[in-house]
Amino acid sequence: MLRNYLLTALRNIRRNASFSAINIAGLALGMTCSILILLWVQHEKSIDGFHENSDRLFQVYERQYHDGQIDAGYFTPGQLGEEMRKVLPAVEYGTNLAWEDKLTFQAGDKIIKQSGNHAGEDFFKMFSYPLIAGTPATALNSPVSIAISRKMANDFFGSPAKAMGQTLRFENRKDLKVTAVFENITDLSSIKFDYLINWQTFLENNQWAKDWGNNGPRTVIMLRKGTNPRTFEASIKKFLDGYNKEQSKKFYIEMGMQPYSETYLNSRFENGKMSGGRIEYARLFSLVAVFILVIACINFMNLTTARSVKRSREIGIRKVIGARRISLVGQFIGEAMVIATFAFILGFILVFLLLPAFNSITGKEIHIPVTDSAFWLCIVLLVVFTGFFSGSYPAFVLSAFQPVKVLKGTMKFSNKSILFRKGLVIFQFMLSVILIIGTIVVSKQVGYLQHRNLGYDRENVIYIPLEGVLPEKFPLFKEEILKQPGIAGVTRISGTITDISNGTGGVEWEGKDPNSMPMFTQAGVGYEFVKTMNLQLKAGRDFNKDFATDSSAYIINEAALKIMKLKNPVGSPITFWQNKGTIIGVLKDFHFQSLHEPIRPIIIRLMEKNGWGTALVRTKPGQTKQALAGIGEVCRTINPQFPFSYQFSDEEYQKLYKSEQVVDKLANCFAMLAIFISCLGLLGLAIFATLQRTKEIGIRKVLGASITSLFTMISKEFMLLVLIAFFVAAPLAWFALDNWLQQFAYRTEISAWIFLLAGFAAMFIALATVSYQAIKAALTNPVKSLKTE
């Protein structure tokens, strides 16, 4: 029987080649989309899950309570990891981690910048990064230890074996010994590094990290086997009380922890609690995959029922000779399974061909896991679901035909059946309209992020890291740079202007509430900072070398002034970290973090002689190329031990919204795919409708109906379906997108024109789809249609 069903299915596919091709293509596109999203979601969820001790690894975070607010984040004191291991028996290992940094190394004549991090000696005992040479116990056990990647070992020494025991000059100030070589980090790790340096070196270069009142590094701990994580988390809640002297009733910190494998997808805090993160995008595109697959299945249903009239006599004869309904249902679902299998084969080929482009869009290195049994189980379930879901409705409808009516040629579909098929089209286009509206809003928000006025001019600004002798020779560096062609201004900052995040509560001023301890963001800058960055002053002036008192002067923003409530801020005394000074300027609020965050109060101090930071060089419009040539020459002359490197401010700003840009590109692709598949479904219903009304159209033509009137008669019914879909989709799309936009402190508006554009686009696409079939039916010779009796 199965062999008979298979042969029948193959004959029907061959007999109706064009119809079958449309059906297979629709399902194949739906499966292609679903498989790509499945691979992406699986990849996202597997990040950081490869560590053998994953169930015992936890990321520590802080909740800071102040002025009725709760701020939470992963930034912790620089000695917390080692201290927790020492004093808490339940902690087997602990390490601090800094941030990815691109630093300079030298071996012989080779001077290369590499990206990496600093970590404690327990790092390789906790994490399962494979070592090619060295052991976890000795990889980072010395203040002069450095572990490097296979790539870095090859770049400097030719091979991992030759690298062991060799010396690398670090930032031209310290010699480090290669004590381990690890395999190149894959994109299944949330942290990327080509080197790891012992944590003591970080503390040597960042004395502030030794103060328990300062935060910045991350802390990861590994609990001993048998430790209950919830009980342990409750026990460390007040751990910092004995270390942080700044804690009081007006400001105190609680500690919590999160499974390390969950931090990549769940890293956003709201009111001190986890509130999502990248997991929302994984859920969103999983839903999109289901939407598109359902659209493809509905398309199959409509196309199959549209062709059912041509198979009605076959069904009637089968029933007359004794075929039971259950066997007919099995036959039609079997045919759907065969088509679904062909669709999967085509879809899998498309996945293989499209995967490089998909990786380029998402920035991933996704591969088809051909050896993963769980993946193939998902694929089998996908094919079975697609075949059964798409074939079930046609199977039950076709198997219900009454043989007497069929063989007499009086077979008609009930109004309920026709209404159901129309409902399917409405549902299809409802999902498509939601995707269209979503695509427009996401693109609008991404454009808003890219072009919003930040309160300063980020165009034509170059970041140059101050390394080697540049910090101590910054006045000379600045003087020489200003002599070069195409330079408009030079200043410096302690970090980068696109990501100022260092916070403090150590600010005092006249009239401050003694029971209040608001948090301020702080940054150190050089002379002419305001002028160089084209910031807007509301009152006062910029830092200027002509004023010797500027070493104890401060500039605040409007948000800080709002907290301080100073009527005449310029000239008012202020104490910052026990250093008394005066306010010399008030800046109009500007964005110094991602637009996910509101503008926070900031205090800016003069740090012209700081030992680290970034030079900010503004070039004249259209002269960036020649300016870079001059800057490079100055850097090589003053700082020959360090290769010249730079970043553009606008490019660094764009990196803040990499996730949104990926979502925008994927949304565009999947929306177009959903619309195309929906059009196939609408085409199926148009074919079905014109077949049902063949005689009516013929009679109307005989009675003098014009082609235009016939076209309008056929088309308006489908336009009504799309219009209904739009009115159902619009409020659903608004609700979902408004909720998505809430994660941005600054966001675009969901304007009425977006819905109007989406509605007109859907109507136009639908009209274009049915017009061919409508015109074809209107042009058909009425003699042929009336001779079908």
UniProtKB/TrEMBL annotation:
<feature type="transmembrane region" description="Helical">
    <location>
        <begin position="718"/>
        <end position="737"/>
    </location>
</feature>
<feature type="transmembrane region" description="Helical">
    <location>
        <begin position="326"/>
        <end position="354"/>
    </location>
</feature>
<keyword id="KW-1133">Transmembrane helix</keyword>
<feature type="transmembrane region" description="Helical">
    <location>
        <begin position="752"/>
        <end position="775"/>
    </location>
</feature>
<feature type="transmembrane region" description="Helical">
    <location>
        <begin position="419"/>
        <end position="442"/>
    </location>
</feature>
<feature type="domain" description="MacB-like periplasmic core">
    <location>
        <begin position="20"/>
        <end position="238"/>
    </location>
</feature>
<feature type="domain" description="ABC3 transporter permease C-terminal">
    <location>
        <begin position="669"/>
        <end position="781"/>
    </location>
</feature>
<dbReference type="InterPro" id="IPR050250">
    <property type="entry name" value="Macrolide_Exporter_MacB"/>
</dbReference>
<dbReference type="InterPro" id="IPR025857">
    <property type="entry name" value="MacB_PCD"/>
</dbReference>
<protein>
    <recommendedName>
        <fullName>ABC transporter permease</fullName>
    </recommendedName>
</protein>
<feature type="transmembrane region" description="Helical">
    <location>
        <begin position="21"/>
        <end position="41"/>
    </location>
</feature>
<dbReference type="InterPro" id="IPR003838">
    <property type="entry name" value="ABC3_permease_C"/>
</dbReference>
<feature type="transmembrane region" description="Helical">
    <location>
        <begin position="374"/>
        <end position="398"/>
    </location>
</feature>
<feature type="transmembrane region" description="Helical">
    <location>
        <begin position="670"/>
        <end position="691"/>
    </location>
</feature>
<feature type="domain" description="MacB-like periplasmic core">
    <location>
        <begin position="433"/>
        <end position="628"/>
    </location>
</feature>
<keyword id="KW-0472">Membrane</keyword>
<dbReference type="GO" id="GO:0022857">
    <property type="term" value="F:transmembrane transporter activity"/>
</dbReference>
<dbReference type="Pfam" id="PF12704">
    <property type="entry name" value="MacB_PCD"/>
</dbReference>
<keyword id="KW-1003">Cell membrane</keyword>
<dbReference type="GO" id="GO:0005886">
    <property type="term" value="C:plasma membrane"/>
</dbReference>
<feature type="domain" description="ABC3 transporter permease C-terminal">
    <location>
        <begin position="287"/>
        <end position="396"/>
    </location>
</feature>
<keyword id="KW-0812">Transmembrane</keyword>
<dbReference type="Pfam" id="PF02687">
    <property type="entry name" value="FtsX"/>
</dbReference>
<feature type="transmembrane region" description="Helical">
    <location>
        <begin position="284"/>
        <end position="305"/>
    </location>
</feature>
